[in-house]
């Protein structure tokens, strides 16, 4: 085992556990367990809000799968990745203050809580909870695999042993610390990701003999590698622009991102998060994907694309520095995994158990069930990750597309269109999830566009048409805050 690489990882993990124990003491001191455990008592400032959104969104896809795809596709994939720069800005600009005010009005702790308050419909709640549980299991599995592969490549342990270490680490600190531990560790992880990107970018440029030399080597191998269209010309302008729906504006519909827009302390914090988030995302997405491309002439012939990032770090940096830098992708993976784990746990406990099974459950029982559900979910994902896919980015993007197709319109139009109602929300979720699942499997990339484009459009039509057709059944007595009652 290469201890020079492993020791920085151990120090990083120890820091995460310390934060988890600190957050567990906060939970004990707060009177409202659910608000604290699942939303950090809505006390996030600008820096923590920005970094937790970045760290949650920046995942194994951004730091492991993305650079791997850039290694195969060339500079065209870097251009594709840059469409994510506006992600944080769009989320906070579109949801922003209005979403936070409505969430407080509905006393919402989760995204499903918000939908329950807005549409007052059991069907909407159950459809939403089911969508989150199914799709986030896919996303969590991809992240679990990414974390295990990174530990495997760093330590030389078997995949199963690496997966076990990763799973135990995440499950323990999420169980004991809840949302506050997740948000504060996200901040530490976001800072590690930023400086890790800076160091590996500089190291790769130096090792490749400068940017001019690296670009010349890439062009000599295949001129398409330095074009915007990918190594085989498959990244057409239509595909790239439609991909922006998946990784840009569509992110508004992701529950794990939307819930962070509920948790900030004041509008000053939100505005600060807008600026910090956009700058940091731009740098990290550009840097990590560019490193993936530049690794190609330095380490030609890598067969498993997901191993590009750890291999290039250990090739161009001293072992001890590679260990520090590789805490960045580990941070990206852990910060996404912990958020998804807590989100699915909150869906089961708050949205299903407390709404429909035992609404009068005592605090002690809710606490025990929250810890138990989080542990069972983590163990279940561990079991699913035992047979990993070859390229985890696609599994993760499948989950992203499904959730965006389900939630973007019930969330956004629910905020801004008073005529939107529960029938529109149900139609949008069913059509979004249904068409995305079918198109993804039988008609991928229809008309040369990304798979998510048509489902998002169809779910939009479903929301508007169903709301308008049922609008006559709505009376002034069952309207409140633009919501339809009953």
From TrEMBL:
Principal place of residence: membrane
Ranges in a coiled coil: none
Record's keyword terms, sorted: Cell membrane, Membrane, Transmembrane, Transmembrane helix, Transport
UniProt keyword Hydrolase, yes or no: no
Listed CDD domains: SLC5sbd_PanF
A GO CC term assigned to this protein in UniProt: plasma membrane
Keyword Transmembrane applies: yes
Cell location: Membrane
GO molecular function terms attached to this record: pantothenate transmembrane transporter activity; sodium ion transmembrane transporter activity
Residue spans crossing the bilayer: 6-23, 44-63, 75-95, 124-145, 157-179, 191-215, 235-254, 274-299, 319-345, 366-386, 392-416, 423-443, 449-469
Bilayer topology annotation: Multi-pass membrane protein
Pfam families documented for this protein: SSF
GO biological process entries: sodium ion export across plasma membrane
Protein family per UniProt: Belongs to the sodium:solute symporter (SSF) (TC 2.A.21) family.
Protein's recorded name: Sodium/pantothenate symporter
